[in-house]
Design goal:
Quinone Oxidoreductase, Chain A, domain 1; Rossmann fold; 7-stranded mixed beta sheet; about 25% helix; alcohol dehydrogenase (NADP+) activity; alcohol dehydrogenase (NADP(+)); metal-binding; CAD-like; ER
């Protein structure tokens, strides 16, 4: 029998999120049901709610950084039991048949694509609803195990911000002997710094100003530079093996590509509002690469959680009540959070 749970939903692109109730599907043979204890607020939630990234299925419950405790499992479930600490990230299904799904890169599913944790359409034909709610039901193949060493509140942001930065660091072999630059010290950027340092890389933060310099150095960066100072680009030219761009602003890509060493890579993690202008000489003279990266597959996300547990990597969070979500949205847009809001969903259970 379907269950009814409390949630916070958007009803339009301009109205505030309000408390409501939604239904969750019956627990099928391969499903895991769990009570949600914490849900992170990602800037993607805001872009989606405000229809800045395309069509939205209103009413919409956002949230794809979800952590909680299992309450029921289906008859065929083999990976989880009642009482397990679990999480769900940015997607809750994929085709499971295409070459990317079979390779464990479900986020790149092309048949026709992964099913988003919210604003997607599930196999039952119903819109998916996210983590700003009291409970959720997800196929076991898309559920992650939260290690005992990571609190549920800390686990939530790792399921998007953590894997979004961990995946490119691993793919481009960040580690001892490599120099990594992180553009922006926000929800993504602060975890990029922590993870790159834990992997053994030498890390530099590139930020518009120096106002977060103390934080950046505390998080493990060896250098912190203001990009508003044009001398920064002269001083650091040809310095980095890898640059992670965690901001969604349109940057002077020629200047930033010039910071790469021979064969260096600049990876886009944010999606700017306008098309990016890429000067060809900045790529050609230095055999540099401009790439992108999208979250991570299920196996790699579990690897990331286990890595964070082993190395003590946790996000810097501000825990809020659900009633504060709309104010939190305004503060995220204003870059007034250090560094991730996490909703305590106890009042929704």
């Amino acid at each position: 029998m379907m269950s009814t749970v409390s949630a916070y939903a958007a009803t339009s692109a301009v109205d505030p999120l309000t408390r409501t109730t939604i239904t969750r599907r019956d627990v099928g043979p391969h499903d895991v049901a769990f009570d949600i204890h914490f849900a992170g607020i990602c800037h993607s939630d805001i872009h989606t709610v405000r229809a800045e990234w395309g069509k939205v299925n209103y009413p919409l419950v956002p949230g794809h950084e979800i952590a909680g405790v299992v309450t029921e499992v289906g008859s065929e479930v083999s990976k989880f039991t009642v009482g397990d600490r679990v999480g769900v990230g940015c997607f809750v299904d994929s085709c499971r048949e295409c070459e990317y799904c079979r390779a464990g890169e479900e986020q790149y599913c092309n048949n026709p694509g992964m099913v988003g944790t919210y604003n997607g359409i599930g196999r039952d034909g119903q819109p998916t609803q996210g983590g700003y709610s009291g409970a959720i039901v997800v196929d076991e193949n898309y559920v992650l195990r939260v290690p005992d060493a990571v609190s549920l509140a800390d686990a939530a942001p790792l399921l998007c911000a953590g894997i979004t930065t961990y995946s490119p660091l691993r793919h481009w072999n960040a580690g001892p002997g490599t120099r990594v630059a992180v553009i922006g010290l926000g929800g993504l950027g602060h975890l990029a710094v922590k993870l790159a340092v834990a992997l053994g890389a030498d890390v530099t933060v590139l930020s518009q100003s120096l106002k977060k310099m103390e934080d950046g150095l505390r998080l493990g960066a060896s250098e912190y530079h203001a990009t508003s100072d044009r001398d920064t680009f002269k001083k650091l030219r040809g310095s980095f093996d890898l640059i992670l761009n965690t901001v969604s602003a349109n940057l002077d890509l020629g200047a930033y590509l010039g910071l790469l060493k021979l064969d260096g890579t600049l990876v886009e993690l944010g999606m700017p509002e306008h098309p990016m202008e890429v000067p060809a000489p900045a790529l050609i003279f230095g055999r540099r690469r401009l790439s992108g990266s999208l979250i991570g597959g299920i196996a790699e996300t579990q690897e990331m959680l286990d890595f964070c547990a082993e190395h003590g990597v946790t996000p810097e969070i501000e825990v809020i009540e659900p009633e504060y979500i709309n104010e939190a949205y305004d503060r995220v847009v204003a870059s007034d959070v250090r560094y991730r809001f996490v909703i305590d969903t106890a009042s929704l259970r």
